[in-house]
Amino acid sequence: MVKPLLEETETVSATYMFLSSISAKDKAARLNAPLKGILKELNEFDKKLKDEIEGQKGMIITKIKEELDNKSENRKTVITRMKQDNEQFAGSYHDIIENLRKQSVTLYYKKNKPLDLPEMTPAIRGHLFIPRISRIPHQFKNSYFRN
Question: Long-range contacts: 14-23, Cβ < 8 Å, 24+?
Fold first, then answer.
């Protein structure tokens, strides 16, 4: 016996990831490469200037050495801070991209489920689902149904 079907709506929720993950370390490295070059050039300039004034004495030379050390430290601090900021910005950029590529998706679909009816006795089932041949009009008995 075929059971009647009941249509039921079901849902499935999931998080879908669009595109592939992007590494932010490469972006920070590209931003920091020119800063490394500037820092290297500044260090070379400081070294040449110190070599030039080495062995000299006087009030002006002392002041130049003090200013050179102060300015050199300030430049190194600023460039180091810029490099750290670039790494932080690249990390923030990565987080923003990761959040944008995630999306919650809910799927709704209809599912046919067998309807659970109480079991019936064969006599009741016969009256409900199988027509009795004696009730079929006379002209259809011979052509469609056989006794």
Answer: 14/104, 14/105, 14/107, 15/102, 15/103, 15/104, 15/105, 16/102, 16/103, 16/104, 16/105, 17/101, 17/102, 18/101, 18/102, 18/103, 19/101, 21/98, 22/94, 22/97, 23/94
pLDDT at residue number 33: 93
Judged against a pLDDT cut of 70, whether residue 108 lies above it is answered with: yes
The set of residues, in sequence order, having a beta carbon less than 8 Å from that of 133 and lying 6+ positions away, is: 141, 145, 147
Tell me the helices (H) and strands (E) count for the chain, helix number first.
4, 2
pLDDT (tens digit, 9 = 90+) per residue, 89-107? 998 988 888 888 888 888 8
Domain that includes residue 91, residue range? 5-144
The pTM score is: 0.54
Domain count, the chain: 1
